[in-house]
Design goal:
Length: about 200
């Protein structure tokens, strides 16, 4: 079982006490106007969630003077828990499918893009290299092309998934982004020590 981390700003800054009568905002508060009871001790205790996976919780009062009244209830998980991995729920068949699909994708990437005799990667790099004799300018252009395509496709994700379906759009997204990323990284590695 992993150890859970609790982040609580209430441990560092106790809430302001509620004053018995209102003061003018600029008038100093005297010590006799503060409440005599100590701060709520349960407010300063860390709240741990006992679950199988480690979760981060931020415990903070919604406004000054409020405490976490429902501290016994675990906070709901918002979004995908993509980093969760449970060996007991894994299926050998799904891993075989994953390995086969990954192998096919890498083979197609090699044939269509990476291999100089059959792929378009060299032609793409040569076309971008005609912009300037400076390797820095070509590298900047490759980064801008990759960033524009990658971010552009990501911004059209909702619309693309409605038109093509989730899996088909993700295949299209990876099929376009991955070759551009490979070309950018390979160009950088090949020209990291040279300057014009």
């Amino acid at each position: 079982m992993a150890t859970c981390l609790v982040v609580a700003n209430s441990l560092f800054r106790p809430p302001k006490p509620i004053l018995p009568h209102k003061h003018h905002p600029l008038q100093p508060i005297s010590s006799h106007s503060l409440p005599k009871s100590p701060l709520n001790s349960t407010f300063l205790k860390p709240h741990f969630s006992h679950s199988d996976s480690c979760r981060f919780r931020l415990i903070a009062p919604a406004s000054l003077g409020e405490t976490d009244a429902s501290s016994d209830e675990p906070l709901p998980l918002v979004g995908e828990d993509s980093a969760a991995f449970d060996l007991g729920t894994q299926n050998i068949v799904s891993w075989v499918y994953f390995t086969i699909i990954l192998g096919v994708v890498l083979f197609v990437l090699d044939v269509i893009w990476i291999d100089n005799s059959t792929g378009f990667g060299k032609a793409f790099i040569d076309a971008v290299s005609t912009l300037s004799d400076s390797h820095e300018i070509v590298m900047l252009a490759l980064i801008l092309i990759f960033a524009t395509v990658h971010s552009g496709l990501a911004s059209f994700r909702d619309m693309g998934e409605k038109i093509l379906g989730k899996r088909a759009y993700r295949v299209l997204f990876a099929g376009v982004s991955l070759p551009l990323a490979v070309s950018t990284v390979v160009y950088f590695i090949n020209h990291r020590g040279s300057s014009c």
